[in-house]
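Next up, a specimen:

>
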Amino acid sequence: MYSYDKFNFKYKKLYSSYLEKLTLILNNFHKKQYNSDYWEPIIGLYLRSFIIKYHFFRIIDKKNIFKKGTSRNIRFNKSYDDFAINQNYTFYKFQNNSSKKYFKFKKINFIKGIINSSKTIIPNLLINLRILKVFFSESYFKKKLKSIFTIRSSLNFYSLPLFNFENYNFDKKLIFKNRINLIYLTNKKNIKNIFLHNLIISMPINYLENYDTILNEVKKIKLSDAIYVDGNEVKFDHIKFYIAELKIKNKKILAAQHSLRSGIEDFNIYFDYLKSISNFFLTWGWNRNKNKIIPFSSTRVFSSISKYKKIKKENNENLNICYILCSYSGSGECIYENRIENFKAEKARINLLKKIKKIKNMSITLKPREGSFLMDNQKKFYNKFDLLKYKTRMYDVLNNYKVILFERVSLGIAECLYLDQPTIFYYPKNLYKQKNKKYNELIFLLKKANIFFDDIDNISKLLSSKASIFLWWNNKKNIENRKIFLKKYANCFDYADFKKIKKII
């Protein structure tokens, strides 16, 4: 079995070492003299993600994934988001080539340029008047909700303007030449360092060739006293650049917990990254009594509940369940399980489905997530069930199903509990070993709320009739324990929380 403790130690060591290397590389390339405090917000998430991908493919899968690379066949990443979604990653051993092929990206048009520039007028005016204190960057908010936030905060909080930076116009051969030169100049003594080679080759164009363009656009936005940034938002490069500029001026960076798992599981690069670059990390309620960690609330839960509050279920006689399948990728933001554990998890899932299928007057529908791990030899089995598209909105799921079944800790559990939706969290007995005390505490509270199940027979018994589900879900003790869980691990944002943020800055 793969040792996550061993990997975690190696990961931290690699990150520290190569952050300093990249700081030197970027300073030389851009003729700057910044330290790693400036560059880490820009490249830190990319570096962490690269380490995960590299070692996932090389160590966990143990596949021969290297091929000869030239400027003709290398897929250069435009942005971090571009890199992050490229899951079918290939690492290269490089060779010279004589390709004369060029490629160009979409140029930003004149009208969009004017619109983007106009986005800065109001926030810059508010900053000059010393009214606007904090930019927030919550993409889950619709425009209406963002406006409400701004008004309810007495204009102290404003959504950070988004820009379109697709004004690339680079020669692919030149990009390749840039990268090879950087590799040679920084690593003369160890030309066989494939890790560094690929780290530089894969680096988003936004951090090298397009750096000045983005920086000039970002500098059009005046610096606020602070920024409130969500874990998902830092995928956008312009936010990273803005944070870096705030770092120079010693402004405050408030990082907010992104998901129910963030900060409580053994390994999560978004949590590590945000904690490292921020002055304070605002949780959804939990506390570790450590520097930077502040118990707070969740704007993401608030946004979700605002969207789902109009849900009205049809009163039908049949018992229907939606089973939310998790993804077992291991190559993205976290390493959850290795491949052996994935197969164990799927076998446990299949056994549960077989058990539920035998229950009379019961129907079950599966909702996979993008990247859900489904064994090829079990496709015939899964075809026996109704299968929703992975892009199906949670709103539609909650509208149409009486019981929601999860197999991973996720935001969906909190959403269901707030909306009084019967919810089951299935976690197979003795499948995963958890060492993190915070994660174990979360599971303990879910057990007290009678939501957590690790035994298939107990789930089957619960789902045997409408009466048993009603008694279980409406039990006063269970209701009270659900509230305790939510307050500690998914505390919903309230407008009064603006005052808490203002005290921090």
In short: The chain has three domains: 1-120+163-220, 126-160+222-298+496-505, 314-489. The radius of gyration is 24 Å.
